[in-house]
Write a structure and sequence with these properties.
The protein is of the alpha/beta class. Among the domains are: about 150 residues, no CATH class; about 190 residues, UDP N-Acetylglucosamine Acyltransferase, domain 1, CATH 2.160.10. The protein has 16 helices and 44 strands. It is elongated, with a radius of gyration of 31 Å. The mean pLDDT is about 90.
Length: about 725
């Protein structure tokens, strides 16, 4: 433990950078990021008359020669301060700065300032200790106990400064408490970067290169960077701000401790940090709001995120457009558009791939329930554990899995998307209903895309995000789910006949296909069992396999027709034959959710290869590649839609006009179904007598909830359906010319 030492009074500001770390010819005043905006006529020394006024106003300085000012300097506005070392003060005139109801006069009062640059027209009052900081123009700093910067400041980046030992480096141990998936945080890191680094740990060359790129490109190892408070910031009533880089127009009030952090903020996307907040070792994105006793340590928070009401975020990365409040998040990689609002929700050692929602009481990962630290949980897009759900490591969930309220005693691998999962304690079995959302809650699943698009308030969209529910990743899961249902239904039928289930895979699929396209009553009377979905000896029962199989088919029709018809709509001069020629290819079956952006397996492999061989040699290069793939993605998705439609029509070599006409007709029916079900599923809430029992009458209910006929989303779906039916009509006319 370090001890308090005594140094001469005059040397209080010296040795910010020790001599051995100073460039040749530099003195103790050296710091690397000096104030960029210099006065038009340069800095000047104080006049004797100004020094006299400053002394009369109870100001003290180690040397008045070290205080530099501009031509716009009113010394009467500087009082009761101690200045140590080189302090440069921008324009100071008799004006008042206002931020909402806070009004503070320009000037410096009641403060101790050590080796700082201070911008034009800035108000600094009752800042008890401010050392080694660059303050921008038009800032308000009021009632701050300490704002200081050390000579080894890294501002949350996981790098080392000259002379530092390796054990002080900040790592983030994501997805696994054991640390086997650790990454280095850096300013500008997005969830795609974190997933690329944390997931592909077996590729040693990739790991080495990402470590090298981060150390080389993020921030150099030289000491001597000052902390910065950019222009237009307001910081008031806060305790400790140490080694923090603060962007423009940031508002900080009542913070307890900010240490080794970058807080990104801009005029267009200001970030706010509020009462009781503790942030240590991390990066905060643009446009974030962090309030009310939040604690975050070793973290990266994306853009447009909200942390509030005592949230604890530790060893975790949170994607853009996410909200966490009242709960604990530990060792996680969370993709964009995550919601978690409740005080007794715990998310431990998981990779949650976005558009997710943690209900009250949900516990993902009961700590140390085995001989070692917990394993991992992987939840694909749209994951929603219900009230008080408890899930055991290690588990994996397909896209848009809904867990009913239950304690799930065993590890699970839910392979069927859009499913409802239930632990039936009375029958001692796990029950899975595939395509539940499509069949019983269309309002929620249809609203999903629109909801997250509206919540995306980012001005600078660095992380590309696929918000569409029906996209290549989910449709590949649907296709795989149909195949599983065919195999499992065939086995159920054979068991019912007392026959062996040991048959060739394609024979089972062929039999299952005939059953699932045959008499519904035959399948209804079968006990269809899922395989390798739970680590136990009990049954995993598939509910409504016949209905789910056809719902999956409708999903693919809906997905494919929407994309293909829209393509024809925006390319009116292109014939059906030309479209087919452009889209004839092998279906890409592997789609990777790269932090919210979907890329093909081949494209991801190319990224990895190019990083390893040096073609991609910086994070800027890697982000540029992401953007190139994002531009290419619409064509990739269109091609996949075409191939998915071919799959539905038994992999015919190409789509004929007759087949496409049939698909368009089926698409019309599915669109009508979606529109009707959006209305019907919402209508159920209005017709629920138990729900209505809390109201005196229906008029009170409508006053609180609004009338069903006035529901904006129901209206939106009706309008979109009518519009798209018009597109289908135009497509039919085009191909039938």
């Amino acid at each position: 433990m370090e001890k308090v030492t005594l140094i001469p009074y005059k040397n209080i500001y010296e040795n910010f950078v020790e001599k051995k770390y100073l460039p040749k010819g530099k003195d103790e005043y050296f710091f690397r990021n000096q104030q960029v905006k210099k006065p038009a006529k340069g800095w000047r020394h104080l006049h004797a008359s100004e020094i006299e006024i400053l002394v009369k106003n109870s100001n003290r300085a180690t040397s008045w020669d070290d205080i530099l000012v501009t031509d716009k300097f009113d010394p009467t506005l500087i009082s009761n301060n101690h200045f140590f070392g080189l302090v440069r003060i921008g324009a100071v005139e008799n004006v008042v700065l206002q931020y909402h109801d806070l009004k503070m006069p320009c000037g410096i009062t009641g403060s101790s300032i050590i080796s700082c640059d201070i911008g034009d027209y800035t108000a600094i009052h009752d800042v008890h200790y401010m050392a080694n900081y660059i303050i921008g123009d038009h800032c308000i700093l009021f009632n701050i106990h300490e704002i200081s910067c050390t000579n080894h400041s890294k501002f949350g980046n996981g790098i080392l400064k000259d002379g530092e030992p390796e054990d002080v480096r900040v790592w983030l141990e994501l997805m696994n408490e054991g640390g086997g998936r650790r990454v280095l945080p850096f300013d500008g890191m997005i969830t795609a970067d974190a997933y690329l680094w944390a997931k592909y740990t077996d590729i040693t060359k990739l790991q080495d290169r990402l470590f090298e790129i981060t150390n080389k490109c993020v921030m150099d190892s030289h000491r001597g960077y000052y902390g910065t408070v950019d222009s237009g910031c307001v910081i008031k009533n806060s305790w400790i701000i140490k080694d923090v880089k603060i962007g423009k127009s940031c508002y900080i009030k009542g913070a307890n401790k900010l240490k080794n952090v970058t807080i990104n903020s801009s005029d267009e996307e200001p970030t706010q940090v509020g009462e009781g907040v503790i942030l240590v070792n991390g990066i905060v994105g643009y446009g974030c709001h962090i309030f009310y006793s939040v604690v975050a340590a070793r973290f990266v928070i994306g853009d447009n995120c909200n942390l509030k009401y005592g949230a604890r975020v530790i060893y975790s990365i949170l994607g853009d457009n996410s909200t966490i409040s009242c709960c604990e998040v530990l060792n996680n990689l969370i993709f964009p558009a995550h919601e978690q609002h409740h005080n007794n929700s715990f998310l431990i050692a998981a990779c949650v791939m976005g558009q997710s929602n943690m209900a009250a009481g949900a516990t993902l990962g009961s700590n140390h329930n085995s001989r070692a630290t917990d394993g991992e949980i992987v939840a694909k897009r749209g994951f929603w554990p219900g009230l008080c759900s408890s899930v055991k490591h290690s588990s994996q969930f397909a896209s848009f899995t809904l867990l009913s309220k239950a304690d799930y005693p065993n590890e699970m691998n839910i392979r069927l998307p859009f499913a409802l999962v239930n632990n039936n304690v009375a029958k001692d079995r796990l029950e899975v209903m595939p395509a539940y959302w499509w069949m019983y809650n269309m309002y929620a699943i249809a609203r999903n895309t629109s909801k997250y698009q509206k919540r995306d308030k980012r001005k600078r969209k660095i992380q590309n995000i696929e918000f569409e529910t029906f996209a290549p990743d989910t449709m590949e899961e649907v296709i795989a789910g149909r195949k599983l249902l065919e195999v499992w239904t065939a086995k159920a039928y054979l068991r019912s006949k007392g026959e062996s289930t040991e048959r060739e895979y394609y024979d089972l699929r062929d039999l299952g296909n005939k059953l699932l396209n045959g008499d519904k009553e035959v399948v209804k009377n079968l006990e269809v069992l899922g395989e390798e979905m739970e680590k136990s000896h009990r049954k995993v029962v598939i509910l409504k396999p016949y209905e789910a199989y056809h719902a999956y088919e409708d999903m693919i029709i809906y997905y494919a027709i929407r994309n293909l018809v829209y393509y024809l709509e925006i390319h009116p001069k292109e014939s059906f034959e030309q479209m087919c020629k452009h889209l004839t290819n092998v279906r890409q079956r592997e789609w990777i959710n790269l932090g919210g952006q979907l890329v093909t397996g081949d494209d991801l492999e190319k990224i990895i290869d190019d990083i390893c061989d040096g073609t991609l040699d910086s994070w800027d290069d890697i982000h540029k590649r992401y953007n190139e793939l994002w531009k290419k993605y619409q064509k990739d998705k269109l091609l996949h839609s075409y191939q998915a439609l071919r799959f539905i029509y038994n992999k015919c070599p190409s789509l004929t006009k007759e087949i496409f006409n049939d698909a368009l007709t089926r698409g019309e029916k599915v669109l009508h179904y979606v529109c009707d079900q959006v209305y019907q599923t919402r209508k159920k809430d209005y017709e629920n007598s138990i729900r209505n029992s809390t109201f005196r009458n229906l008029a009170e209910r409508d006053a609180v909830n609004g009338k069903l006929e006035d529901n904006s989303f129901v209206k939106q779906i009706k309008k979109e359906t009518e519009e798209f039916l018009g597109y289908i009509k135009s497509a039919k006319e085009l191909i039938n010319k």
